[in-house]
Amino acid sequence: MVNTGDRSASRLPLSLCVGWGIGTLGISIMFNTLNVLMQRFATDYLGVAAITWGYIYLGAKIYDAVTDPVMGVISDHTRSRWGRRRPYLLIGGLVSAIAFYGLFHAPDTVANNHAVLLLALLMLLYSTGYTIFNVPYMAMPAEMTSDYHARSHLVSFRVYAIGFGTIAGLSLAPLLIGSMGGGKQGHESMATIYALAILATAVACFIMTRSAKQTSPRADASLGFAHRMKLIATNRPFLLLIGVKFTQLAGLAINQAALVYFIVHVLGRGYAFLGIYGLIASICLLLAPPLCLFAGRRYDKRLVFIYSSLFYAAIMLTWLFSGPEETTSMLLLRGALLGLSGGAMLMMGQAMLPDTIGYDHARSGLNREGVFAGIYTTAEKLAFATGGALAAFVLGYMGYQSSTTGYAQQPDSAIVAIYLCMGVLPAVMVLLSCLFLYFYDLDELRIREMARSRLSVQR
Asked: 100, CA 20 to 30 Å: which among 10, 232, 303, 393?
């Protein structure tokens, strides 16, 4: 049990928490919509082969991952009237909105010989915008407060925003596409609306975080890149958390890529059902933060994380027993349970990141939030690169047939591939993450002891 005491005085203003959290909304809309719909849009409406899309996705994510640490260093050394991080919220939001609009307005491969190249360039632009926004954004919580539980409270607003972004990407986007004519035209209309939303949330986040506490570059932080990496490599809790996030997000990416194929080709249902399923799962995801905050004040964050991960993996494996004969209520119940446990995993992972950054500051005294955020988001990008590309490669090598009309009859081998990507592979990856969590040992007591030790040395 964790003895917390009174933390009310350490909480950040509600308006600031909402303002920071809303920055995730636009990015989550973009992220979830692309992860759920873009692969099928490319294979079934643009005529791109599944394997070709796998290479495009993998290349864009690797580029994305490589640029993340660079962006972290840039934001760590930025000096401006708006602070080190906030200017990039505007720049990243604008680039992301342009890229999202362009991806769903790309020409098909039959009408344009250069369509594949254009699609690849637009994916690179999307990756650039995401990096510019997300790396400085993720560095902000460690600067805004040093309190163990206040960080969890702040991060909960990001999880709420992710939940609403998931509703927009997984539920509203399919419904919008259907209401606007379906097909390629419906995708284009949806993308126009969402691009404006992405830009608007970035602007709102920039304005509403003007009072956020920010650290400044310090002369003693001007270390060589090799020295920086050596210091970070000794941060064992951070490295273990990276292992957790990589395995979990790779599994999530595989599942998200397979979801729309599973609904269309296995269950024989359309985007309307995808919208309902996404709504139920997202609402349950929104229930996770308050439950996790309650549990996290009484039990160690790591234990809450492990139990939610094990439950998530167990439910994921039940997709193997699903098929067109399964009732709608059972399908939605599974979505609800996955949304709740997945939200708990997301919440605890986000809450533990600032702790590992604070652990570094307690040991070194350096303000390197951007570097850590850059490495963390690099792991996220590599995870989605691995998972998304793996799903495309598995589908492609097992015979998935692409199309420009929205549907093609699939061989039995492709259906098996969809089952593998929907349930088995994601569950295996999440179970693997529990091994990293088993060795994670950074808790509230240890952080407090290190902070006290550093204060006594400074005196």
From this structure: 393
pLDDT tens per residue, range 191-219: 999 999 999 999 999 999 888 777 665 54
For residue 433, give the amino acid letter: S
Of the candidates 248, 227, 271, the one whose C-alpha atom is nearest the C-alpha of residue 368 is 227
What's the pTM value of the predicted model, to 2 decimals? 0.69
Q: Quick: pLDDT tens for 75-124.
A: 877 788 887 888 999 999 999 999 999 999 988 876 666 888 999 999 99
Q: Read off the amino acid at residue 258.
A: A
Q: Residue ranges of the alpha helices (H) in 224-368?
A: 225-233, 236-261, 271-296, 301-317, 328-364
